Batch of 4 targets.
Target 1
Amino acid sequence: MDASLVVLIPILLTIEGSNRAVVPPGDGGAAIGPLQIHKIYVDDVNTILGYNKYSYEDRNDRQKSIEMAKIYISHYTPKGIRGTLLDKLIVMGRIHNGGPKGYKKKSTLPYKKKIIKYYKERRK
C-alpha cells in the first residue's frame, strides 16, 4: 500500500490545491489545507489511531495533512485490491474524496477522471 501512496499523494496535492503552499478553503470553508480535509476526516483519523493526535488546525500543515491522508486511506482501502496501479490509485483517491465507501459512490466519478488525468501526466 505504501508504494501506491507514494504515487497517490502528489496527485492528490495537485487535484486539491494545485500543489500550492497556501490553498484557500474549499466547500464553503469546510475543506482546509493542501489536501482539502474536512473536520470529520480528522476525527476519523484520530479514532483510527485511538487518541487525538491531530487537531483541526493541522489540516493547514502540509506534512500533517499528508500523514492524516496516509492513515485514512490505508485504513479504509479494501484489502487485496486487484488490478493495475492506476486501478488502486483510483480506489484510494475516491476514498480520500468521498469517505470510507467513496470508491463506490457516483459522486466521486469526476474525481476518478482527475486521478486518471494527473496520473497520465506524471508518467509522460
Target 2
Amino acid sequence: MNGKIDRSEAQSAKIGILGGTFDPPHIAHLILAAEALDQLQLARVLWVLTPVPPHKKNQSITSLEQRLEMVKLAIQDNADFEISRVDIDRPPPHFAVDTMRLLAKQYPENVLVYLMGGDSLHDLPTWERPNDFIAACDAIGVMRRSGDHVDIRSLENELPGIRAKARFIPAPLVEISGSQIRERIREDRAFRYYLHPAVYKLIQSQQLYRRKSET
C-alpha cells in the first residue's frame, strides 16, 4: 500500500495537510495531527480551516473569526503545527482538490500528505472530483481505528491510484466529533476534556454553542 508517489519522500520534506471546519477543534484532531507527524515523519502539519464547507451549506456554523481563534489556541503548544490561510483567503466553494492544487503551488519542493480519518477514506468516492483530488496529493495519511477493515482493492477499482498513495496510521481514536461536542454543550453535559484547555476556556467565556439554533 505504500507505493511510489510523485516526489521522493526521502528527498523532500513532508508536510501534512489537515483540513476541516473545526467547529470546534478537539483532541481527536490533535491526536490525528500528532500521530501523523510522528509516524509519517512529517516536517510540520498545516491546519487548513474551511470557511464555508460545501457539504454544510444549510447548517449554522460558528463565525470564521471564532473558529480561527480556537484553532490558534488548540495548536499553540506545538511549534510543528501551523495555520494555513489557503482557504480563508479565497472565495468559496472550498473543495479539497482545489486546496491541494493551491498548496502544491505554494510548496513546490515539498511532499504534501493529506490527513484524514478512516471514515473519510470510505466516503472519498463521494468527494468533489475524487480522482483529481488523489492526483493532487503526494500521499494520503489515514488514521483508522483498530480492527477497521478497508477494502483497498475495491476502492482502487473505483479510484485508481488510492492504493499507492494511502499511508495508514495505526493509533487510538477518540470517538468524538464536533457535532457531539456542540450537542453536549447545548445539553449542559460534560465536554471539558474533549478539548484543549484554552479552547474550553474560550468556549466558556464566549458561551459558544449554547443557543438551540446552533447545529
Target 3
Amino acid sequence: MPARDIYHDAVRNALIKDGWTITDDPIHLRWGLKDLYVDLGAEKIFGAEKEGRKIAVEVKSFVGASEIYDLENALGQFVLYRSKLKRQQPERELYLAIRESVYTKIFNHPDADALLADEDVKLLIFNASKEEVVKWVK
C-alpha cells in the first residue's frame, strides 16, 4: 500500500466528527493487475433511509514546490479513481479533500470554478488543526 497523505488522519477524524462512518481505509481498486488505493471510504445514514450516502475521499496535501504541479497530479489521480469507482463501486461519490488554505489559494476563483465544473470534481474542504469539515463543494 502507498504511504498515507500527511493529512489523512485529520480528514478521517473530520469525517467522523461530521457524522460519517469510515467503511474503508483505504478503498482497494484494481487497474488490470495493478492496485489502486483511494484514501478513505465513508457512509452516512440519513433519517429513515435503509441505505445511506456513500463517498470515497482522496486526501491531497498540496505541499510540493509547485502548486500547479500538485494540482495536475491531484486531478489526474482524481479522474483515474473516479473512473474505476464508477465501474467497481458505482454507489460512491468521489471527493478530493483539501485544506482551507489550498482552497483559498488555488480553487476559489473563476478559473478553478470552470475546471471543477468541466471535470466534475467534488471537494471536501477541511481545517487540519481542528480536524473539521469546513465545506462541501459539488
Target 4
Amino acid sequence: MRGGVIAWLTATVLLAGAMAVRADQPTQLDAAGLRSEMRINRLLAAYIERNGMPDVAERSFLSDMPPWDDHQVTLFYLDRHQEISFARAYILGWPSIAIERSEHRLSDAQVAALAPLARSRGVVVRGGALARAEAAAERAEAAADRVEAAADQADRAATRAESIVSKMESQPARPAARRRPAKK
C-alpha cells in the first residue's frame, strides 16, 4: 500500500512539473482558436480585419505582473517578415484594455523556420499577399456600397427638404393671429 502511494505521489509531481514546463511554451492557434481570441480582444480582431489572416498564430504565457492578462497572442505574416503581439491589460479587475504589445521584423532565418508550420497545418488559413489583397478589395467594395447607400439616402432627404421649401414659398403667408388684450 505504501509503495502505491509513493508511486502515485511521484507520478503526480512529475505530471505537475511537465504541465508547468508546457505552460511557458507557446502553443499554435488554429483558425477556431484565433477566432476565439479575436472575440475577446477587439484590437486583435480589428488588426486581422484590416490585414487578413496571419500565416501562423500562437498563444504564449505572459509571466508579467499585473495589469497584464495571463497570455498574449502573436501573429506572424511571413511574406511581410512581420511578427506582432497583442495582449490585454486589467483595469479595476476587468481586462478592458487591448494593447499592441510588440512588433518586430522577422529575419529570413526566422521566416524559414516558421514556413513549415504555415504549410503543415491545414487548419490555419494561409493569408498570402494575394488572399489579403482580395480580402481588402472585397472590404473596399463593401465600404463603397455603404457610402453609395448613404449618398442615396442623403439625396432623398435633400429632395424632400426642397419640396417642403418650395411648398412653403408657394403658399401665401398667413396673417399673424391677433392677440386679445388680457382682461383685468
